[in-house]
């Protein structure tokens, strides 16, 4: 199902990101579960933030894949390298994130999560931390980036081996 709302800020890259996200959702069961293509999970409930993050993430992934494709030895190798681009998943609640994690956890390259989003139908200011700790129990080395405007959490998160980004930082959405 694909029913997200996006906020267009004038960046045409958002359209490509929406198309890629839809392709990833449709192709993931085969590409990831049968062929081992890796995934990145973005947990964010703010349409403004995920509408800003997704174009940046896809742009970087496409640059990296293009560099790999150029190294391809023949057409078949180049095609295989192109198909192997990591897939992006977007979850907007704890339950969505957990379902994606349960299904694709073994393919995860990393998680980028907000701190405050829906948990059991109600807003929870610690939902991102709860989700990250659940994942950490099974995959202690998986890179996890938590984003929040509550900078008081930075030290605690870093002590648990998670990275932290201040959502109020002017540098956050810089390409």
Structure description:
- The chain has a five-stranded parallel β-sheet with strand order 2-1-3-6-7.
- The chain starts with 12 loop residues before the first helix and ends in a 9-residue tail after the last strand.
- The protein is α/β, with parallel strands linked by helices.
- The radius of gyration is 16 Å and the shape is globular.
- The chain has six helices and seven strands.
- The chain is 46% helix and 18% strand.
- Helix 1 crosses helix 2.
- Strand 4 (117-119) and strand 5 (122-124) form a beta hairpin.
- It has helices at residues 13-31, 47-70, 75-83, 94-104, 127-138, 154-159, and strands at 39-43, 87-91, 108-114, 117-119, 122-124, 144-148, 163-166.
- The longest helix has 24 residues, at 47-70.
Element layout with pairings:
Elements: H1 13-31, E1 39-43, H2 47-70, H3 75-83, E2 87-91, H4 94-104, E3 108-114, E4 117-119, E5 122-124, H5 127-138, E6 144-148, H6 154-159, E7 163-166
Parallel strand pairs: 1-2, 1-3, 3-6, 6-7
Antiparallel strand pairs: 4-5
Helix pairs in contact: 1-2, 2-3, 4-5
| Major sheet summary line | 5 strands, parallel
Overall pLDDT, averaged? 88
Radius of gyration: 16 Å
How many separate helices? 6
Taking the alpha carbons of the first and last residues, their distance comes to 29 Å
Q: In percent, how much strand structure appears in the residues?
A: 15-25%
Order of strands side by side in the largest beta sheet?
2-1-3-6-7
Poorly predicted runs are: none
Number of strands: 7
């Amino acid at each position: 199902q694909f029913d997200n709302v996006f906020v267009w800020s004038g960046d045409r890259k958002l359209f490509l990101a929406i198309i890629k996200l839809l392709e990833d959702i449709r192709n993931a069961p085969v590409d990831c579960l049968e062929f081992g293509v890796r995934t990145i999970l973005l947990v964010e409930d703010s349409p403004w933030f995920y509408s800003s993050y997704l174009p940046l993430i896809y742009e970087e992934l496409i640059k990296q894949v293009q560099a790999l494709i150029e190294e391809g030895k023949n057409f078949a190798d180049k095609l295989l390298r192109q198909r192997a681009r990591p897939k992006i998943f977007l979850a907007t609640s704890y339950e969505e994130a957990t379902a994606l994690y349960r299904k694709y956890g073994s393919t995860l390259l990393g998680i980028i999560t907000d701190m405050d989003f829906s948990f059991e139908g109600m807003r929870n200011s610690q939902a991102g931390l709860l989700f990250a700790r659940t994942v950490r129990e099974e995959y202690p080395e998986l890179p996890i980036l938590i984003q929040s405007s509550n900078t008081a959490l930075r030290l605690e998160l870093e002590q648990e081996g998670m990275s932290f980004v201040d959502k109020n930082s002017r540098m956050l959405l810089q390409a």
